[in-house]
Amino acid sequence: MAGTTPVEWTDARSGYEAADAEGFGLTAEDLRHWRPFYPVEIAWARKHGLSLAVARRWASDGVRVHDAVRALALDMTSQEVRQWTDAGFLPADAVEAKEVGISLEQAVAWREVGFVLPDAALLIDEGWTLEAATAARFADVDQYGPDNARR
Amino acid sequence: MLSEDRNKLLCETGPGTPMGELLRRYWHPIAGAAEFEKLTVKPVRVMGEDLTLYRDRSGNYGLVDRHCPHRRADMSYGFVEDTGLRCNYHGWLFDHTGRCLHQPFEETTHPEGRFKDKVRIKSYPVTEKAGLLWAYMGPEPAPLLPDWDRFHARGYKQIAISHVPCNWFQCQENSIDPVHFEWLHDNWSRELRGESGDRAPTHKRLGFDEFDYGFVYRRVREDTTEDHELWTTGRVCLWPNCLYTGHFEWRVPIDDENMLSVGWFIDELPGDAPYEQERIPCWYAPVVDERTGRWIDSHVMNQDYIAWVGQGTIADRTKEHLGESDRGVIMLRKRMLAELDVVAAGRDPLGVIRDPAVNHWVHLPIIGRPPAQDGPPPFPFLAGQPEEIEKQLEQAWRDCARPKV
Asked: Which of A39, B82, B250, B333 has its CB 3.0 to 4.6 Å from that of A20, i.e. a possible disulfide?
């Protein structure tokens, strides 16, 4: 299958995508119907009961299937996600923040120090404060003089 | 960045540790079946446990404690019989389930005592599949050994194993780190070859998706678009300790400071005539250049080893500074930590398969490579491929290119 695209799979972007779709138990019709989603996304959406219409609505806000499933489980709205993307975060960051209970202001403060959001989320989840994390982050460089990255 | 406590949680795999408990819910490849064409007993160390792997004269594989429960002699110096492995010290015999079958002197002096029924040796199930020997070291009932669809693909298969002196988890993090390809493998290789000119195409965008057996990571480079397989299909960080890109690279903890890299490779063959490979050869890949005493840097996986070992025997994640390229790594850590809780709660963790109906040619996304036109390309993954294997592959390739009539 891989490398060539039989007639019924002509909507696949390549023979490999067709093979991937088939491997996930999808039909050529599924792939055509769900375009432009990818096989792994379609399979995940179906597994979690995400309809095509809802998947498309989230995708129009830049939220792909994996994050849309998480967002819906958290009762998030696309408007909520948009607040985060407007602030320069990825849609996945918005979902991550909601899961851990991080406010946008808090996330911005951690970002200012240099923490990407998922890194910050793991630390906050473990009970770190921004002050403690910042001190730990620069502990090695601070001892070597004034021209380190933080100053 | 991680706290020291969380770093330990992710790295320590000995018996009773949270990660050890998680990893013991899966089958792990620990040797090549072809190794047992020439030997019958082999000492192995897996997740901090010293064990003895053997194949008895009936063809049963066993994985038992390194030490005899009698007086602690080394069972890897024992000898196999029709059933089981006999200790070379006083002749106690054990089968692959751990039962003691014979205690020569005890049975001579006190046959009625049936002391052998009161003694067992620690044992774990071993299964052969796809040319590998797999061990399951967790609680019963054991899950099914995954029947990945790639195991059934047509092609010449080989297994290459390396001993890498660092913790397993930094190796597995590499399985979800797309950007390292650009630098460690593309740009550094160009430097090593003394090539001048342009750098490799840069990464422009990354994407990560979870699926039933791990994560798919996707990338757009400056020379590709979102219609390219690197984005539409992606590559697989296979749960819990493997990279799958058409071949498999398992990272099996030997202990917390050493990792057994088990590679399973397949070269697709030309034509479509049936091809049956009688045996899957297994070889051990060197990691050190004997001429220089430095790590071998010529092949893809060797380059990975240099990066991993360079991170320290156990990477100190309290000192790292993660960026945008590390989103997949963080995702992996988060999922690992979550799955530790799943196991602690007594449930099956991610990717465990128990339904035989599911476990049939289980699909993993793959970006295929067009078959070579003029013969098999040189083995790119590890240095030291034996000439004999290279010749076998060439022969298989020739046979398939010009099938016999």
From this structure: A39
